[in-house]
Amino acid sequence: MDKTVNQKAWFLVLPVFLVVAFSAVLPLMTVVNYSMQDTFGNNQFFWNGVGWFKELLDPSTDLGGRFLASLGRNLFFSLVILAIEVPLGIVVALSMPRQGWTVAACLVTLALPLLIPWNVVGTIWQIFGRPDIGLLGYVLNHIGLDYNYVSNDIDAWVTVIVMDVWHWTSLVALLCYAGLKSIPEAYYQAAQIDGASRWAVFKAIQLPKMNRVLLIAVLLRFMDSFMIYTEPFVVTGGGPGNSTTFVSIELVKIALGQFDLGKAAALSLVYNLIILIVCWIFYTVMTNAGSERKPQEGAA
Amino acid sequence: MARIDLVDLAHSYGGNDAPQETFALKPVTMTWRQGGAYALLGPSGCGKTTLLNVISGIITPSRGKILFDGADITPLSTQKRNIAQVFQFPVIYDTMTVGQNLAFPLKNRGVPKAEIDKRVADIGRLLDLEPYLNRKATRLTADAKQKISLGRGLVRSDVAAVLFDEPLTVIDPELKWQLRSKLKALHRELDLTMIYVTHDQTEALTFADTVVVMHDGRVVQSGTPAELFDKPAHTFVGYFIGSPGMNILPAEVKGREARVEGHVIALNRSYDNLPAGARIEIGVRPEFVDAIAPGPGLLTAKIDRIDDLGRIRFARVRIGEAKIAARAPAGFTGSDGNAGLKLDPAHIHVYADSLLVEGTA
User: Fold this and answer.
1) Mind listing the domains of chain A with CATH numbers?
2) Is the peptide bond before B329 cis (omega within 30 degrees of 0)?
3) What confidence tens digit (pLDDT) does each residue in B205-222 have?
4) How many Å lie between the alpha carbon of A177 and the closest alpha carbon of chain B?
C-alpha cells in the first residue's frame, strides 16, 4: 500500500498540542520550577535543587513531619470510609426494589447527596453538628453525649467520616445496583433450584457479578477521599489542632498561608505522584481481572 | 422420585380473573409416572416453559394443584420441592471450580461430605467432566458450562424429577446428538423422572418415551412418538410432528365418504355422528399418499413442484385450493403437470373443529 506523505498534516494536531501545553504542561513545569527554588518574596528566587524533596521525606524536619503526618491521616481516613461505604453501599443496593415506581424514587433519593456541591455539604454538616443551633449537635448533647467537633479530636473525626459516608455511599450503592441489575433472572432461579440460602446466593452469584463495579467504586472512592479538601476544611478547618488536617489542607496552608512556594510545589508533586501510582496499580489490577475472564478451550 | 399429578392446573400472568382464553396455561389434568422420560413439545409461546416453571415452583399457579406421590406441594417453595431444573442458558457459579459447582446443590442441603464427593465424582464421570473438576468453571466453553448445569441437575439422587428447559439451545448441532444420547443413557442409569421441554420435534422424539404436545396453552396430545405419528389427536399435532406435516384438507364427510373440492375419497370407517356446524377436515400424512400417473379411480392433482430430499421425494400438488404433499417414486415427474393421488384409507383421519373423531367400523 502506498502511503501519502504530507507533512502539513502536523498542522491539524497543532491545536491539541497548544491546548495541552497551556492547560497541563506549562503549569506543571512552573510547579516543577518552584519546587527546585526558594523565595523570600520580592520575586527573588534561589536555587535549592532537590532540597525540598529531601526535607519532605525526612520526618525529623518540620516540613517532612507535617507532610507524613497528614499523609498518614489521609490514608487512615480513606481506609475508614472505604470500610464503611463499600459494605454499606452493597447492603443498600441489595435492599433496593428491582421493579415498579419505587425504583425511580429510590434512585432519585440516592442521587440527591451526589448532586450537592462540596462546600455546601461541608456547610450543612458544620451547622448540623453545632451544639448550640445544630440539630445533631444539640440533640446529642441533650441526651447526655458530650459532642463538640470544634474541641474534641474524635468528635471531629467522626463528623468528617459520617459526612463523607452520607455524601458518597450513594455512589457505591448506585454502582452496585447497576451490577446487580445485570444478573440474568436464570441465575436466581437456578440458585433456588439448587436450594441456596440468601447468603449463598450473595456469595456465589451477586458478589462475583458485582466484582467489576466494586473495583471501580473502590478506585473512585479512594481517589476522591485521598484528595479530599473542601468538606473537612469547611467543617473543621483541619482542627482541632492538626487532627483533621489532610494532605491537601496542609498543602494549602503551606502554599497560601506561609507562601512557601518551593515547599508547597515539592509537596504537590509528591502528592500527585502518589495518586498517579495508586491509579496505575488499580488500573493494572482491573485490566488483569478482566483478561482472566477470557474463555479457554476446555471440556467439550 | 415420585409420581407427579397435575390436577386442574392453570396459570395466567394476568391473574385468575382474566378470561380463560388469555391464560398462558389452560387447565390441564395429567399424570407423569415415576421414572418416565417425557418431552414437552410445542412452538415458542405455547406455555411449555410456564408449565415447567409451575412444576418447579418458580411460578405459583393461578389455580389447581400439583401432587408429588399424592401429597399436595403447590404451596411449597422451590427449595422445598425437591426438584432439579436445567435452564436454556448455562448458569455457572463463577468463583467456584467445576467440582464445587456440581457439589453446590448437595452442600446447600447439608449432605455429608463423603457422599458429596462420591456423587460429584460419579456425575463428573458420567458427563466426561472428570479432568476439569478442579478447574475454575468460568474458563470453560459454553458446551462445558451447560454440561455443568446438567450435572447440577443430576447430582441429587433423591429428586422427584429433573426438568430441562431447552437445555441444548447453546450447544453445537454435532454435540447435541452426543449430549442427547448421554441424557437418554443417564435416564436409564439413574431411574429419574425427566421432563424435557423443546420446540424441536427430533429432540423430543429421540429423547422421550412419552411426548406431550402443547399448543396455545393447552395440552393437545400425549403419547408415544408412534401414536403421535399414526393418530394425531389434533390437527396441530399432525401438522407439527412429521416433516412435511400432515395434509389437512377441508372436507364434507358423510358415512364412509369424504368430499374434497368435489372429489370423493373413500374412508375406512363410518362417520355418522359428526357434530353439527363443526368445521370438518380430513388429515392424511404425506407418507400415506402416493403420487403416481393419473388414472381412473385416482384423484387428479396439479403438480406445483417436487422436493427431492435424497432419501425420499415429495410432490407438492394441489386439488383446487387444497395443497397436498405426497410421496413420489423415483423418476416420477407427472404427466402434463398432473398426478394421480392414491390415498391409503386406513390412515385417513377425520377432524371436527381440529379434534380427532373416532369412526365406527
Assistant:
1) 47-299 (1.10.3720.10)
2) no
3) 888 888 999 888 888 888
4) 19
